[in-house]
Amino acid sequence: MMFPWHKKASDKLEKMIEQNHLPHALLITGVEKIGKFNFTQNLIKKLVCSNSSCNQCELCTALNNDDPLLELDHSVLIRRSHYPNLIYCRTELNDSGSMSKDIRVDQIRAFCESLGKTAETLQIGVIFYADQMNNNAANSLLKTLEEPRKNTLIILLAHNIDRLPATILSRCQSVHINPSYENETAQWLANQIGEDTRADFDPMQLLDSAHGVPHKALDDLEGDFYFQYQSWQNLLLEIALSPTKIKNTEIFSDNELDVLKCLQHLINEGIKIKVLNHDGANLELNKVIEKTSFNHLFRLLDDTNRAISLSQTTVNIKLLLDNILVVWSHITNLSKYPAITNFQEH
Questions:
Q1: 169 and 50 belong to one structural domain
Q2: Helix %, strand %, coil % for the chain, to 5?
Q3: Is residue 48 part of a domain?
Q4: How far is residue 31 CA from its own chain's centroid?
Q5: Do residues 149 and 254 share a domain?
Q6: Are 235 and 159 members of one domain?
Q7: Residues 6+ apart with CB under 8 A from 228
Q8: Are residues 339 and 233 in the same domain?
Q9: Distance, CA of 247 to chain centre
Q10: Of the residues 176, 203, 232, which one is the last residue of a structural domain?
Q11: Within-domain flag for 213
Q12: Domain count, the chain
């Protein structure tokens, strides 16, 4: 089954296939939980199924039985699909029994060696997630990408394209899956939740809170994240309208990255309001945007995006959020946009 928010990316690949321009290496990108693995399985079915992804034949059934994400009871370098000519490579259990943070060079070597064998039918190798390869692993993959064997397709999945070396990016055709706020996606989300939940939550509002990622919206509903998110958003708007509210940020503790993403979303929505020149549904956000300059919104969005990227490093994310919030608390009356000093260290 193809998710509605996958259609644009899928159409791009369909055109490549129809024109016989499918490359030897594909890079499929998108934020976490956007469904990259599902998208990849649908693509593979189209390529190997004689009835173009019928979901009923032996090959489709074999692929439907693949779920290497759950097969973590033992550590292996690569995992084989139920389809004979398909292999997977992902992070594995380390000696202490916990998941490794990196895909290691010995895994990539085993991956490349397996794909180096001659095959009469299409052989496919999938790496997820490629942005978890360490430097040695990425370098080890280069030769296979540069000199691909005939009848071989390598598919790299990645959450964060910025963490991949330029040498890898230049050897792959990129296909991006965008977050979606479209009605078809909201309807899909509505169909996944019970009637009682549907009565309490508007699907479009759930999508909005989950930054256009439907599976994240479903996960958020299972716990109290949605309610937390609403409280963060409300306090952020209060801080922008009443700077003294910045003293009440205890609820942000241990959730700094999610709060930064919440602020990122508010700023993006604010910019849309400015561009379209009409009020949005959030009355408090309208008040903030009415008093804020375009330039300052874009500057703060850049700083917030950078803070989110730096969260992957050893930066003190709490201190970084505090500094971002100081600027946000004065966003409606800034005469000159200030430099955020913590960025100077990175």
A1: yes
A2: 55, 10, 35
A3: yes
A4: 1
A5: no
A6: no
A7: 251, 255, 258
A8: yes
A9: 32
A10: 176
A11: no
A12: 2
Q: Within 162-291, where are the H helices?
A: 166-169, 183-192, 195-200, 203-209, 214-222, 225-241, 256-276, 283-290
Sign of torsion, CA 207 302 324 295?
negative
- Per the structure, the complete domain to which residue 88 belongs is given by 4-176
Report the amino acid identity of residue 1.
M
Contact in structure between 184 and 203 (CB atoms under 8 Å): no
Give the torsion through C-alpha atoms of 58, 21, 27, 265, to 10 deg: -110
Tell me, yes or no, whether 155 and 263 share the same domain.
no
Q: Using CB atoms within 10 Å of the CB of residue 156, give its burial: 0 to 12 exposed, 13 to 18 middle, 19+ buried.
A: buried
pLDDT tens series, the chain, 346 aa: 789 999 999 999 999 999 988 899 999 999 999 999 999 999 998 898 877 767 778 888 888 888 766 555 556 677 877 778 899 999 887 667 677 889 999 999 999 998 887 677 889 999 989 999 999 999 999 999 988 888 899 999 999 998 999 999 999 999 999 999 999 999 999 999 877 666 777 888 888 878 899 999 998 888 788 788 889 999 999 999 999 999 999 999 999 999 999 999 899 989 989 998 888 778 999 999 999 999 999 999 999 999 998 887 888 999 999 999 999 999 999 999 998 866 644 4
- Any domain includes 190: no
Residues 98 and 233 occupy one common structural domain = no
Q: What is the CA radius of gyration of the chain?
A: 23
**Domain presence at residue 143:** yes
Same domain, 71 and 11: yes
Per the structure block, which two tokens stand in for 182?
């479209």
Provide the 3-class DSSP secondary structure of residue 59: helix
DSSP string, 61-82: HHHHT--TTT--SS--SSEE-S
152-158 vs 86-89, strand pairing mode: unpaired
DSSP string over 134-170: -HHHHHHHHHHHHSPPTTEEEEEEES-GGGS-HHHHT
* Length in residues, the chain: 346
Which of 141, 176, 211 corresponds to the end of one domain?
Answer: 176
User: Helices 135-146 and 105-115: crossing angle, nearest 10°?
Assistant: 20
Q: Are residues 146 and 257 in the same domain?
A: no
